[in-house]
Amino acid sequence: MSGNGTAPVIDVTGLVKKFGDKTVVDHFDISVPKGAIYGFLGPNGSGKTTTIRMLCGLLTPDAGSGTCLGYDILRQSDNIKEHVGYMTQRFSLYEDLTIRENLDFMARMYRVKDRKRKVDAALEDLGLANRSHQQAGELSGGWKQRLALAACLLHNPDLLLLDEPTAGVDPKARRDFWDEIRRLADAGVTVLVSTHYMDEAIQCDNIAYIAYGKKLIDGPAREIPEMVGLATWRVEGPDLAELSAALDGKEGIEQVARFGSALHVSGMDAGKLEAAVKPFLKDKRYTWKHQPAGLEEVFIHLMSGSTDNFGGQEAA
Amino acid sequence: MALSTSRFLAILMKEFIQMRRDRMTFAMMIVIPIVQLMLFGFAINSDPRHLPTLVEVHDTGPFTRGFLAAMQTSTYFDIRGTVASSQEVDRALKTGEAAFVVTIPENFERDIVRGDKPALLVAADASDPATSGSASAALSVLAANTIDTLAIGPLSYLAGSQEAFSVIAHQRYNPAARTSYNIVPGLLAIIISMTMVMITAIAIVRESERGTMETLLSTPARAPEVMLGKIIPYVLIGYVQTCVFFILAFWVFSVPFAGPVAPFLLGLNIFIIVNLALGFLFSTIARNQMQAMQMSFFYLLPSILLSGFMFPFAAMPGWAQVLGTLLPSTHFMRVIRKIMLKGADLSDIVPDLRALLIILVAVSVLAMLRYKRTLD
Fold this sequence. Notes:
heterodimer; A: alpha/beta; Rossmann fold; Alpha-Beta Plaits; six-stranded mixed beta sheet; 12 helices; 14 strands; globular; B: alpha/beta; abc type-2 transporter like fold; 2 domains; five-stranded mixed beta sheet; 14 helices; elongated
């Protein structure tokens, strides 16, 4: 996708942000092609929010440079703000304003033309037209999130920065939300989204995994498992909890994760993993199968902080 | 239901930790009493001295010199210069350039020697009775002392005669010396200072506290847009307060409004906007609503005590007058007293308006520089 000739929407190198003596973002590079859905993954406090804030001019980087939508992130943040839709992690519209008033406010802030019609259309799309006079604070988490998305779409941004947009939202609402994101991306909007959820990460075209302020891995979603190089065995059978306890902590086994009626047993060293699993293969109650690691296992692996040989991966 | 010492200690310790972390509040708690004690303990003096005094001289001689010297050494009066005409006397009192004007009539010395018992005229600005009261009371004593000192040799026949010359004190603007005439107009300055500063200070900090600042900052809004948008709605509240104030001032306190309305409105608008800008500046410093409140109060006390509202400005030591001059309420206090009580016109309040405008520009520039368009 990045090879189609158009300039990347986000192209930054060496971003550094320090709060006091703590380096929250450490030499971060990223290049996001137009129309991509780019996922930011990483544990809490890994610097995802800080990175997003630097991209849209809410924070000034201590070092680094680059462009966002062709504008310099250090000097032209006003221009960037005009064309970016930023959805904050925490609901940050006015709870004491009604739904309509909030949308109207945002439309005015971005000097949206034909404001009244736009706001009406947004309310209609949201399905909130008949509740438009309700205060935003009274909405449930899922509705707040939809309202926030609608608010940051009013000015037809070219780039959407979504900071954990679906935290605390029910699965149905999340699926609707992602349908909308996909629709926007198809229409040419570039989306950068940070998330904790693996099922959401899978929806992304590209994924950047961040921990301790450093980008550890970055690539097309389907290539990530290969890049990480995790080996996995899938096992099905009775009393999985017991088996899981027995497997856990064995040399060569780095994680045992349950997926429905199966366990996925993974490790970075395929040989050691096989050696560890071997004694259990004799038990006829279980069916074992060696398989390539899926994104899920990889993310559990990444999230669990096993960062051992990424240094080498990154350099390569 | 037993009480737990451990829980109590846990809470106690948590409070101490939070107190230590909230450096601003901590500093305020320590600094406020020190600063206020230092400021107000020294500055407040309800027995005003060194009041600016001008002299209208139509005669000179030993009695005139003696009386003026007695005035000066009494420390109540600070003779700053002379005026030539009664128009100048009026102007000096109206603008506040002088609190007293002493008029030495023609043939004053000759009339004393002849035993004609002439009278000295002292015009006093009584719009603040606290300022003029004790000084006025000292005048007749000063006259008697002057006579006694000079009644020697050929003039010894005047000794003991309390009436060799007399002093007629003319209390201008507030002849009945009603304190409410002075306090009530000043209250408008205090009310506006208090509410306008606090309301804007809180309005912006609230954005940060509720997280809405992040949305606001992610939009392309510029500092002046945010500042004006935040300030203007409260100007209207300032108008409402002013209306309420005047209703009470007229009906309850029967305070006159001697001067023209237009210059007053001009001063009022500038003053309201200065206070709102100041509130905006505070809000760029405070991290939460509590701190914003504390700062507002920190500002309010000097506005009450150093602005000439409660205590005569002229009675404060020089450094306190300098501090007072930095406060917008000091200048508006003068505007409203001059216009309401003395019937002053635009030309009389120009220096005060100029001071208010200078403060407005300084505060606005500072606030705009302090207003961060990032979350850093």
